[in-house]
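Purpose: get a first structural picture of the assembly so the mutagenesis plan has something to point at.
Setup: two entries, given in the order below. No constraints added.
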Amino acid sequence: MFSPVPAPAIVSRSPVTGAELGSVPETPSAEVAAVVGRATAAAAAVRAAHPYERAGWLRAVAAAMEAHASEIVSLADAESGLGVDRLRAELAGAARQWRFYADVAEEGSWLDVTIDHAADARPDLRRVSEADGPVAVFGASNFPLTFGEIGHDTASAMAAGAPVVIKAHPAHPRLAVLLGEVGHEALAAAGAPVGTLGMVHGFDAGLALVRHPEITAVAFTGSERGGMALRAAVLERAVPIPVYAEMGTINPVVVAGSVPATELTDLAQTFVRSLTYGSGQVCTKPGLVLVPRGSDFVDLVGRAVQDARHEGWALTESIAAAYRTGIAELEAAGASVVARSDGPGTGWGLDPAVLTAPIERVRSGSRLLAECFGPVGLLVEYDSIEDVIAVVGELPGALAAGLFAAADDPDVPRLVDRLSRRVGRIAFGVWTSGVATTWAQHHGGPWPATTMPTATSVGAAALRRFVRPVTYQGMPAAAQPIAVRDENPWAVPQRIDGVAVGGSERRS
Amino acid sequence: MFSPVPAPAIVSRSPVTGAELGSVPETPSAEVAAVVGRATAAAAAVRAAHPYERAGWLRAVAAAMEAHASEIVSLADAESGLGVDRLRAELAGAARQWRFYADVAEEGSWLDVTIDHAADARPDLRRVSEADGPVAVFGASNFPLTFGEIGHDTASAMAAGAPVVIKAHPAHPRLAVLLGEVGHEALAAAGAPVGTLGMVHGFDAGLALVRHPEITAVAFTGSERGGMALRAAVLERAVPIPVYAEMGTINPVVVAGSVPATELTDLAQTFVRSLTYGSGQVCTKPGLVLVPRGSDFVDLVGRAVQDARHEGWALTESIAAAYRTGIAELEAAGASVVARSDGPGTGWGLDPAVLTAPIERVRSGSRLLAECFGPVGLLVEYDSIEDVIAVVGELPGALAAGLFAAADDPDVPRLVDRLSRRVGRIAFGVWTSGVATTWAQHHGGPWPATTMPTATSVGAAALRRFVRPVTYQGMPAAAQPIAVRDENPWAVPQRIDGVAVGGSERRS
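Result (structure tokens, whole complex):
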């Protein structure tokens, strides 16, 4: 397992024991330039490929992940401690994602083709949104397969026609190498140009990557600190490019008084399951729950926490340390512990905790409203719906909010309207943690949830981050991009003279 | 005309004579907060208004501009020196714009409604993009009516459901007041909430505006210096918001060898007309023209410049000074004057000039590739199409490129493809300056053309800058936004389970 590697290197460690598992060399800056160079050389061919051809590449990656499932899951578990069952399910989800983005690539509405034929004083104008060039992707460690090196960002960028250069996550360096190889080989075998997928390792390599003049956009999933640091690095570029950072947030959930008391036991148990899923290292974890004062909810959650056996570890040593510090900070900010349960007691094991705080402490800027990554949640009791509305006004932006209420509760529309101004998704009757990959999904939200509140990193609209519109005026057909031609050889949806045409048929 | 005003004030001056015409007081910071407060209070009602209702507000602004046409054109001419004929045509264009954005608001595809019904493990998800809150608009001085205080940005933001707070342009402060009043009164009479349109004056007021926590986006049209300074100011905010700055660029045009010699005289004359339109103070002015060596084009342009009588003035004293400096800088960078003609000789009059430079001087970072605002253009002779391709690789991003060639010229597709990576629009067979307001228009481009290369400030897609998606998961119908309901009361286009539905019918 151990072999001599040139320093500096990224050390792979087991969250379960803290032991070293191996290491991966950092990518020297000359090699970063070479990787970006290959991506740049591939850009025109990747962009110009028929969407059906690119969809074939994406499906090949899905199949390759499935073919290498045992190897991937085993290495992912060794480096993340997330457990093989969970990771096996995540791998299946990752493969589904790649196939979903393949379908989206083929469907073609992301090209946003718009054609205005010449009329009166108006010239013939044809607009299409296409990929601009290589994209840098910084994947996450908490979902190493669905949001990691070859997760949503990589799949959606490639679906949109952009080559991708991945910055490997240091929490799972050997898994990153494996995922990069699986992806690269599958793409090559499917006929994708050399350079369609590249990878670099190391902090300095990541900086060199986002500063490279040929990189056209950056996608990041991770902490607010990491995302904002990356954004600051990109702001130093001579030529600005967009940074799509999806960061951690405290996702607020409201339990309304209209929820029948008989449902609260079940709700408390599902809350604790949601809170501890992935050891709470989930960006849509319900971090703040507003509950009616006088209900049994706080007690029920306390009992559910104590009953839960938690076999979960932090992804990194620094997350484990920040978790302990974070709970102390919550207490210093006025919260008190309702219940804790014992974690596994080895390595970077995490002990779940639920705290409560008086509602008057829940104010903009308070530590109570900053994310604490890990299996911790804050319960806050309220007296009236007006109190809830007031707290919603104090909340920072978040990826998701939840609302439990009777469907005919007359306060629901107003609560939903207020919550909608703070978050990118509102889930009714379920906890916030699940994120389905569909056409209508939006995984984004106002800062600090993301740096670009109009963008999503999950779902069909994820492709739009990586394309740029160009309008062709009075252009001879032979010089028009294929998607905007009148005969529509790619059979993509076109808006013609203001009217949407096509989009419901699929070529067979 | 003169009346005592509290200092500090914005002084109105005539470009034709340089004389003072009056002044407008700067807005104190407390009043800026009050204006934004009214906009914030109006936000929910503006967002929630039926698109047909909002369209009615926009059409009322169009009608009011037409009703006040004489007054507006006269004041615009006094403060801009652009001429009453040009400004009368511009006013008609501005009214057409407001009506166009009203149509777009009604059509509803900008809401991007996407519905996935529950299926298998997938929950019911419904996404809609709606306005988030007040938008700050910094209009331009070069098109005071179509891109000014109540131009594209204001109309498209309001069409998308956002209240607008305008920062008045200091080059035409009294016109700004008039336009603000005309807009405000028309909106109020049409039933729009108080606070739908506000205005502030002065540099400090503009800073206070973009730093106000309730402002959700900034739209700017103007110089690169102004746009980047505004972006820097916004980057200091605690909560980041998008800045959509559309800035000046040098727009490259290629004249291919396949253009028949018989057409060159006409082309030279239309080039000089395009170059001097609005005294060259146009963001889509063709600033760099690549012409085949050995053609007569340079001589023909020189003659056309000398023959042209130019009655045009800079919009501001500083533009006039920068124009003189800019020509000296072009000469210092290796360009030489082909021809100049005499301007009006009064006030801030501008003398048109055409320069030429050796192609080897046209390199990334050279002053030759930076915009010089005013009636100046640079001609560069090339020997081969490979030389042109190489120069395109050196160009900074631009709003538009032009290409003149025989339609069957085999080099056209490759040239168009290369140009498309540098610009937001490519015009074939016409000069770049005209920008039609249509569905397919894209008025944007890679930096430094804009700070957000995916955004346009003209055309139907302009609304998208001002909306943010929210997904509603498992939401009871009564709490769903109207646009995402199954019965579709607004009759907007919806994508249902991946298939686009509607969009071709209009409600009557």
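The radius of gyration of chain A is 24 Å.
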